[in-house]
Design goal:
Number of domains: 2
Distance between the termini: 25 Å
CATH topology of the largest domain: Endonuclease III, domain 1
Oligomer: single chain
Number of helices: 11
Largest sheet: none
CATH superfamily of the largest domain: Hypothetical protein, domain 2
Shape: elongated
Helix content: 55-70%
């Protein structure tokens, strides 16, 4: 895909959604970090249902530590893998209290040192909580980038590197959200909704579907 096409795709996505953000409910960097940790192999809807009950009771590292792992499990038991997620979240809260005065660090290295936090989670927090121009490549972004030929790569790391290279600076902070939302609602996995896609004429996917 050439530079002009990419620029037009990004311009249309921005015009369609000028201020995109995550669909996870949060009001602080810690609430976002906790929600992202809970969202692995789970839907944002299911995470929001759990955190909408949890956060009014405990929404800081110390408050969750005070809650304890068993009570925490009670709040998040509707989310997949809740046992291991509860353990990781408690360990993360302990590290935040011990090493960072209960605050979420604005540092990739410090974030990735937390239990259950990998590069993708760190990218989400740095981008969404702190406004860094990072791009967290999940299954939606990986699919959309390869399917449209916007930024092709054989794995998520290669797609991330390609996106960072080809996305102009003015679009970098928001492109993560545009591509996720596009993959979640339009360029879906099994049968992409090409007929209702705002970038259909620019996309280089060969097997377009009709609505």
């Amino acid at each position: 895909m050439n530079k002009e096409k990419r620029l037009e795709i990004l311009t249309r996505l921005r015009d369609n959604n000028p201020h995109p953000t995550t669909e996870l409910n949060f009001t602080t960097p810690f609430e976002l970090l906790a929600a992202v940790l809970l969202s692995a192999q789970a839907t944002d809807v299911s995470v929001n249902k759990a955190t909408d009950k949890l956060y009014p009771v405990a929404n800081t590292p110390q408050a969750i530590l005070d809650l304890g792992v068993e009570k925490l499990k009670g709040y998040i038991k509707t989310i997949g893998l809740f046992n291991s997620k509860a353990e990781n979240l408690i360990k993360t809260c302990q590290m935040l209290v011990d090493l960072h005065d209960g605050e979420v660090p604005e540092s990739r290295e410090a974030l990735e040192a937390l239990p259950g936090v990998g590069r993708k989670t760190a990218n989400v927090v740095l981008n969404t909580a702190f406004g860094w121009p990072t791009i967290a490549v999940d299954t939606h972004i990986y699919r959309v980038s390869n399917r449209t030929k916007f930024a092709m790569g054989k794995n998520v790391d290669l797609v991330e590197q390609k996106l960072l290279k080809v996305v102009p600076k003015e679009f970098k902070v928001d492109v993560h959200h545009w591509l996720i939302l596009h993959g979640r609602y339009t360029c879906v996995a099994r049968k992409p909704r090409c007929g209702s896609c705002i970038i259909e004429d620019l996309c280089e996917f060969k097997e377009k579907t009709e609505l």
